[in-house]
Specification:
Subunit structure (chain B): Interacts with TRM9.
Largest sheet of chain A: 4 strands, parallel
Number of strands of chain B: 4
Distance between the termini of chain A: 18 Å
Number of strands of chain A: 4
Largest interface: A-B, 32 and 35 residues
Shape of chain A: globular
CATH architecture of chain A: 3-Layer(aba) Sandwich
CATH superfamily of chain A: Vaccinia Virus protein VP39
Number of helices of chain A: 5
Strand content of chain B: 15-25%
CATH architecture of chain B: Single Sheet
Strand order of the largest sheet of chain B: 1-2-3-4
Helix content of chain A: 25-40%
CATH topology of chain B: N-terminal domain of TfIIb
Radius of gyration of chain A: 16 Å
Protein name (chain B): Multifunctional methyltransferase subunit TRM112-like protein At1g22270
Structural class of chain A: alpha/beta
Structural class of chain B: alpha+beta
Shape of chain B: globular
GO molecular function, one term (chain B): protein heterodimerization activity
Oligomer: heterodimer
Order of helices and strands of chain B: HEHHHEEE
Distance between the termini of chain B: 24 Å
CATH class of chain B: Mainly Beta
Strand content of chain A: 5-15%
InterPro entries (chain B): Trm112, Trm112-like
Strand order of the largest sheet of chain A: 3-2-1-4
Family (chain B): Belongs to the TRM112 family.
Helix content of chain B: 25-40%
Radius of gyration of chain B: 15 Å
């Protein structure tokens, strides 16, 4: 079942009509492909953002064995996890093939403290989430959802993917 | 792509009511050794869709998993070793995932499944 909110919706009109495409997602994907090749291995600004986000996991008493990491600075998120959230299984998803490859290569070359996390890599779109319902404990997106056009639709799908 | 990932992926094409489990088409399977962590497997077991895992492992050429499984079997190291191998050591390197309702193929290249939809599928 598709929970995307911007399909076949003729009842909503006007400037807020969900059929208006604000972003060219295909172009955005190509831009991220290109960005993957231009990125520095570790950008202090991005790292600070990811670190701040991950700090919030330490405020939770709950642990999150299975996590989904979406778009944005996912490479930094994986690299900086350092056991936070007690994540055992991490799925990294991005619409850009080269960005996913970058994450995969970085994981393969790692010499850091995240070696006990089983990581997997998927090309996918958060607006049409290919994740089964009730299968993850945590969704992280660091600077990733700002180019999502249908944010409510993506949020509904992410909610159904959570346990 | 490993089978613990396959166990969570589903087809999200417009109009598909049940996109799980995706069928696997194999071009190349590789095996990579991973350290054995029994507790990881015990934690993971309750969330697995067992039948989907057994079918997927068979498609990948691994037939050692029993048809049915329950939590009492987690005491047996032999069972855990088999589960470990199926979930974490088998990689679908090249091939495809096939939507069970529409037959649409999602290609898997260099171990990365491409689950992006075309414009006419959303």
């Amino acid at each position: 079942i598709s929970y995307c909110t911007n399909i076949d919706n003729n009842t909503i009109d006007g400037p807020q009509s969900p059929r208006v495409k604000v972003f060219d997602r295909e172009l955005k994907r190509k831009q991220r492909d290109r960005a993957a090749w231009l990125m520095r291995p570790s950008d202090p600004f991005v790292d600070a953002g990811a670190d701040n986000l991950l700090d919030r996991l330490e405020d939770c008493k709950k642990t999150f064995p299975t996590a989904l990491c979406l778009g944005g600075s996912s490479e930094a998120v994986r690299r900086l996890l350092r056991g936070r959230g007690s994540i055992e299984k991490l799925i990294m998803m991005d619409t850009s093939n080269d960005m996913v490859k970058l994450c995969k290569d970085a994981e393969a070359a790692q010499q850091d403290s995240n070696q006990n996390i089983e990581t997997s890599f998927v090309m996918g779109d958060e607006e049409f989430l290919p994740i089964k319902e009730s299968s993850v404990d945590l969704v992280i997106s660091c600077l990733g959802l700002l180019w999502t056009y249908d944010v409510p639709g993506a949020m509904i799908q992410l909610c159904t993917s959570l346990l | 792509m490993r089978l613990f990932t396959h166990n969570m992926l589903s087809s999200n094409i417009k109009g598909v009511a049940n996109g799980f489990p995706l069928r696997i088409e194999v071009d190349q399977v590789v095996e990579k050794q991973v350290d054995f962590h029994p507790d990881f497997l015990r934690n993971m077991f309750p969330k697995l869709e067992w039948k989907a895992l057994v079918d997927a492992a068979r498609t990948m050429g691994y037939t050692e998993l029993p048809e049915e499984a329950d939590s009492s079997m987690l005491e047996s190291e032999e069972f855990l070793r088999k589960l470990h191998h199926a979930l974490l050591e088998l990689h679908l390197e090249e091939g495809a995932l096939v939507c069970p309702e529409t037959g649409r193929k999602f290609p898997v290249n260099k171990g990365i499944p491409n689950m992006l939809l075309h414009e006419d599928e959303v």
